[in-house]
Write a structure and sequence with these properties.
Order of helices and strands: EEEEHEHHHEHEEHHHEHHEHHHHEHEHHH
Number of helices: 18
Structural class: alpha/beta
Radius of gyration: 27 Å
Shape: globular
Largest sheet: 5 strands, mixed
Strand content: 5-15%
Oligomer: single chain
């Protein structure tokens, strides 16, 4: 191809052009020094994808808010809390493999698993609305999606852009996405009164919904493996969710609803002579909490394979955010000067901030959150459940993973594994990491190998979820679970022999003991519930 060098008289920029067509083939980098004789550097305007997110008070009555991302109980309760505050809200179903396919079709290549599932779940729902006869323009005008965002070293910081890209390619360009920053609250376009009124009463109602979701899930995971009648726990769970949901919608009778839930769970017949290993699920937040195809229905699969499951509560994540805020504020307050904040500065800067007041508010939150959790747990009958000690986790993890490294669960994943072994909190630990999750992969594949060498009693399994290969993942889980099951069975047999109690005699004593009540919690000795029961009933 023949080329010629032309000087563009309009912008004084040198271009390489096709001599026949005068179409520019190459534009040299615009960052040429402005001092170069005869050449004027271009003004660079970086690409920016504006997110349509204006939601005003005037639009509230005619707008339906869509959201999803937590467990079924949490989404149900948050929907109820929004409804009680006067909003039209729909919690989307738990993402399935169809959502994954839609996410892959409209999303960018190489995204992490949660992105495909959650983005695809929203687009799938909107396509369903369009196919039902609702015009696209009406969907864009009368619906919006609320999600959680963050900054950080992973794709979590670009979730909103991924939503926009998929929505645009699916034909919903202009659909509003409102993002809740974990550290900054709602990020919303200026103009008009805000459509979301995040007052104190609303925040408290949301907090009650989140804590109630944690407590009700913990009760179900604790009781279901030992139920005598299959399905009894799920029925009690659904009835209890309905009680609590109605209280959140009506803004009244919350404590009464918790007591009614307690009565539902109290009526379940259990047999705690069953020896089952307790499996703790940790890892990337979405992957370990979702209850569907996103983690191959891991919680239910473990229960079907003879395990008791312990899932990290959402409250623990809020505790971690508060711990981060306190740690970073104290660390930054030790600087000799105060760096610039606001536009052009750091969002973590302490310029114009009262460090004492900020720390006081953080500590207030750190005390109030566990207090709320304990109160809800007491009314619902969840006994002996202890929230994580964030300072303790940080201390035991720091030698292996620096507390200043962030992304995913950071040092929490390391600290939880160590404490699961040292404090005998569980018999097996599974770290769930989505395909493409950089922070979680770096921890579970790298750092945790050192932990398992230092703590050889640890039965640890990192699994990667991609939406495919469920059989491979489940077979790996089965192999490690077999090891944990044989271990606790041998320990239980040794305890009975030490107490000189045969299994039949022990079963008779247990059947009339308070230890066999569904809400009873035996004193902690081991991660395995049956071993704790043997210690209590047989008096070992």
């Amino acid at each position: 191809m023949e080329t010629a060098t032309q000087k563009n008289a309009t912008n004084n920029r040198i271009q390489l052009v096709d001599a026949n067509s005068s179409v520019a083939l190459f534009n040299p980098p615009s960052a040429l020094p402005s001092s170069t004789p005869g050449i004027v550097a271009d003004q660079i305007e970086h690409w920016h994808d504006p997110v349509p997110n204006e939601f005003t008070a005037a639009q509230r009555a005619s707008t339906t808010i869509l959201f999803a991302g937590l467990t079924a109980a949490h989404d149900f309760f948050i929907q109820s809390a929004f409804t009680g505050a006067g909003y039209n809200v729909i919690a989307l179903d738990i993402p399935d493999n169809k959502a994954l396919q839609v996410g892959r079709e409209y999303g960018n290549r190489g995204q992490c698993n949660p992105t495909y599932f959650t983005v695809g779940n929203l687009v799938k729902y909107l396509i369903g609305l369009r196919n039902s006869g609702i015009p696209k323009e009406e969907i864009i005008e009368k619906y919006l999606f609320a999600t959680i965002g963050s900054c950080g070293p992973c794709r979590f910081g670009t979730y909103v852009t991924e939503y926009r890209k998929a929505l645009r390619d699916a034909g919903f360009d202009g659909f509003r996405v409102i993002m809740f920053e974990q550290t900054k609250g709602i990020k919303q376009a200026a103009g008009g009164d805000q459509g979301l009124d995040l007052g104190l009463s609303f925040v408290l109602n949301m907090g009650k919904g989140i804590v109630a979701g944690d407590v009700i899930n913990a009760l179900a995971y604790r009781i279901r493996p030992y139920e005598v009648e299959p399905g009894a726990t799920d029925r009690a769970l659904q009835n209890s969710k309905n009680f609590i949901s109605e209280a959140l919608r009506s803004n009244s009778g919350f404590v009464k609803s918790l007591r009614k839930a307690k009565a539902e769970f109290s009526a379940i017949k259990v047999d705690r002579s069953k020896v089952k290993p307790k499996v703790s699920i940790i890892g990337e937040f979405w992957a370990m909490t979702t209850e569907g195809d996103g983690n191959y229905h891991l919680q239910r699969f473990l229960e079907q394979e003879g395990a008791e499951v312990e899932v990290q509560p959402v409250t623990a994540w809020v505790q971690y955010l508060l711990w981060q805020a306190r740690y970073d504020t104290l660390d930054r307050s030790g600087l000799r000067g105060v760096d610039k904040g606001g536009d052009g500065g750091s969002k973590f800067a302490l310029e114009g901030v009262s460090v004492r007041k900020r720390l006081a508010m953080i500590k207030l939150g750190e005390k109030a959150l566990p207090m709320m959790f304990k109160t809800v747990a007491r009314f619902m009958g969840l006994k002996g459940y202890k929230l994580s000690d964030m300072d303790k986790i940080a201390k035991v993890a720091h030698d292996y993973y620096d507390n200043n490294l962030r992304g995913g669960e950071g040092h929490m994943e390391v600290g939880k594994l160590i404490l699961n072994v040292k404090d005998k909190k569980s018999d097996m630990t599974i770290s769930v990491k989505p395909f493409g999750c950089m922070p979680s992969s770096g921890v579970s594949d790298g750092v945790q190998s050192i932990i398992t060498e230092r703590y050889p009693d640890a039965i640890f399994l990192p699994i990667e979820t991609s939406g495919d290969g469920a059989v491979n993942v489940q077979s790996r889980v089965q192999m490690q679970l077999f090891k944990a099951r044989k271990l606790v069975e041998a320990q239980a047999q040794a305890l009975l022999e030490k107490a000189k109690v045969d299994p039949d005699n022990f079963y008779k004593r247990l059947s009339t003991s308070r230890a066999n009540h569904p809400l009873h919690h035996s004193p902690h000795v081991s991660g395995c519930t049956a071993i704790n029961v043997i210690h209590e009933v047989a008096g070992v």
